[in-house]
Amino acid sequence: MPTESSNRVTLSLSNRILARPEVGALVAAVIIFIFFLSAAPAFRSAESFFTVLYQSSTIGIVAVGVGLLMIGGEFDLSAGVITITAGLVNSMLCWNYGMNLWVGALVSLAFCLFIGFVNGYLVMKTGIPSFLITLGTFFVLQGANLGVTKLVTGSVSSPDISQIDGFDSLSAIFASSFKIGPVTVWITVIWWFLFVALAAWVLQRTRTGNWIFAVGGNPDSARAVGVPLIRTKIGLFMTVSFFGWFVGMHLLYRFNTLQAGNGVGNEFLYIIAAVVGGTLLTGGYGNAIGVAIGAFIFGMTSLGIVYAGWDPNWFKAFLGVMLLLAVLVNLYVKRMSTARKVG
Amino acid sequence: MTLRRTRGARLIALSAVVALGLAACSGGGKEATTDDSGGGANAAGSSGYTIAMITHETPGDTFWDKIKAGAQQAAKDEGVTLKYSNDPDASKQAVLIQNAVDSKVSGIATTLVTPDALAGSVKAATDAKIPVVGFNSGIDQYQQLGALMYFGSDETVAGTAAGKRIADAGGKHPLCVIQAAGSVALEARCAGVKSAVPGTENLQVNGADDGAVVSTLQAKLSQDKSIDYIVTLGAPIAIDALKAMEAASSKAKLITFDLNTEAAQDIQDGKIEFSIDQQPYVQGYMAVSSLYLYLKNGNDVGGGKAVLTGPSFVDKDNIATILPFTKKNTR
User: Which residue ranges traverse the bilayer (chain A) (predicted)?
Assistant: First the structure.
């Protein structure tokens, strides 16, 4: 709020901090971090920390887009499989037609943005909830991934592309890593930080950011005051697709081949990251830093269990408890902050 | 706004087409191959038989793709019309079997992964005098369900065989990587390994996300440096495991179940010690062929006993023979 009118109750610094969406998640993250530091000796090294960051980044990059979309009041269930679609389009086009990988990557980007556009366009034109529209897209992509891959390659996994022109430069961008001492830093971690910073800036400091909050909080009044509702929402769906494409590129250039059936289930992880990070399911509230912390909590719990050496059969149950706790801490902190605000 | 957007889209499409033309003939892509599907195949249905194959395949698994390839080749060789359907959900698989009975096929080949759930449908088939052959799973139950023959590998036997080789090589603490939570077959393999090497530990990973598989394995390997063998239960997971071992600078040895082109190449390069191959192509091929022989000639392949398609070991000694077949999706 750049222009605060004089008759408004001014909040103390601590209350203003507590009222921020990411604070609950931050508290939860710190608690979980300390918990694993004490429970899992193998967790206490810089190498482990950066493995956790890598795991978080592959979820976190798409979650940034999903978070923005959720602040804008919509869902995208096709975000998990679109990562695989992106990689498959790139690898099979180039393999089949002998094209340079760069061309395939750009065609794939255009294709993914098109899917995002279709998602958004259908939601806006039909008024059908995005949950249903993108559920449809999810199934279409899942089936097409398998069907087309089988048709083109004769198998259900994509061909190895590591010998095709352009591989080295693309894998440097999407899937390289470098060493700082004993620590391996994956480039996705850097990209993730950049995307989070960019999204945070757009949300807090630009007119587009205000539009996103407005269309998520109250679409009718947003439209009434001249916010380009349709353009903003379609743009958000395309943003999710872009980040899905980005992670798809990472998977393709790190693993050279993709299994056409993969990616299913990750759409929920993105939504979980956004929700744990303080994004409201109903839209209009949240921020990018919170979503990043949510992804970090996911990365920490999923690997912390392994670092602690616990029975893997309990993995999902434990993960669920951790996530519930995170949400509860989040809620508690938010309540505390709003309670004080009244007084 | 909409106008400008469509113009933009057209521009993207146009530039893509132009780029397509410019970028033709870049190296490393699909090899120009001639169709080597072999002459002399019969036309579909020329034998007059229709065989329904029903599996619990989860779509997108390279393993099932090979089963299907084997079944299709058998159908082609013998002039059989093949109707393939699948559903990982037991109750839906039962409905698919019922479906085949209703459409009066000549024979049914089905996986018996959840024998209790499928028993009713299989009985309906035998009551309707439609011969049923079991394959891939259900080795202990196929006879009591009324199936005539069985083709597959015994998961526990396969796991134990792998475990014995590990024990003989001095392995003490293998890590058995389960890529699909709650799979009876995968648990049985790990239990087999554990029966031969008591120090075996299981690890659950999310097989639908290669990035997650690598980081989970990497975390496990840095948590426990005493792991000396890694056992993956599918070829794509083995490739992920290699990446994780490199990242965690693990000295463990890698063995895997099943094969694909990359895994076969890694066996040749010595990065994977060996693979336990249950020869899915053979399972699919034999399931169809045995029904054909039974219908045509009254044959009983296996003489009342299950026919094992594995465990067959693929290692440095025989990889040279097998590698070319993996490229054709038959091994």
Answer: 23-43, 49-70, 104-124, 131-148, 183-203, 234-252, 264-281, 288-308, 314-333
